[in-house]
């Protein structure tokens, strides 16, 4: 029965005969008729243009009928009645479409499908935001509309569309968060900002993994490169005020003041050096020809079953590479205190901490958009671009997405490892 209902909802019914309309057959007949008459499929006067015009005009006339309370040509139930039409060109996903908008005598008709003083359908705004999220400038977006849709859209119009997102960004940045996150990651994206002169500005992204195994972008903040404990305490206090009661593990890159700020905010959170960043930072000191061999030599260290085993494997690594690259050995020794907590966890928790796909895919999208722009006029413009990328990752606009397919084994491992806190925060 449910399947039949769903099928009925997808079908079109002829309002006169009551028969089911074969949509495919209808489309083929319309296309054949257009070809016979020499009408193109797209472009001004094309088949899609005419269909869009007819649908919009029919919807507007239906709205006016509902507003007036009588059909066209019917007996008015009051003093107000139809008063002709006015021509209006609206920009749609298929290009500009000229429509005739019906009017009423006293001017009280407020159409919904194409509101007064609006010359763009909502889909156009979404196209602009999508192109901006890919790093296109206002000029490039305007050129895209002229080239693809044959429509002139000014840079000012595009700027006004993207400015609408500022209120949404503020709301997103202050939204309530979940009470507990098994893991949060702190990462940085370097963006060129022109503030008097072009400078590299770090934008910090805090990403959490929810109890349901979803990736959740908690927020984005601009820094100046000299962030300390006070800066990080402010960020984590904000996250706590937005509802985060507890975090099991915080994975970060050993930024100055960051571990202290985390433990001041959430006393029992384990601060874990990001393994991926540790390996990547090792490459700064290594020749390209040796990188694969270094990764191979380091893998027994971060996959060791215990801290002692990791120390033994690291001693072997130091013996093999210490003379050639002493800075890499020193880097790992300096980070050892933040690295070793990782070794005490179940293999499923290690997978969550070590997985690169979710983090790197997000960073790749951010960097692609930033690289396409080159630099931004101010921090707000950069923040808006990064938010639009975040927004595009999630159809609901919240910045959430599935983290891993096999989340339940990891969830069980967290529940056992952090039993007391886990039970308290999930009830």
Give the tags.
two-stranded antiparallel sheet, 427 residues, six-stranded mixed β-sheet, 18% strand, disordered N terminus, alpha+beta, 19 helices
Strand content: 15-25%
Q: What structural category characterises the helix and strand content?
A: alpha+beta
Main sheet summary: 6 strands, mixed
Q: What is the string of helix and strand elements?
A: HEEHHEEHHHHEEEHEHEHHHHHHHHEHH
Please, what is the average pLDDT?
77
The rough form would be described as elongated
Strand tally, please?
10
Strand order of the main beta sheet, please?
A: 9-8-5-6-7-10
Number of helices: 19
Q: Describe it for me?
A:
Helices cover 50% and strands 18% of the residues. The chain is α+β, with helices and mostly antiparallel strands. The strands form three sheets. A six-stranded mixed beta sheet has the order 9-8-5-6-7-10, sandwiched between helices. A hairpin with a 2-residue loop joins strand 3 (82-92) and strand 4 (95-104). It is elongated, with a radius of gyration of 29 Å.
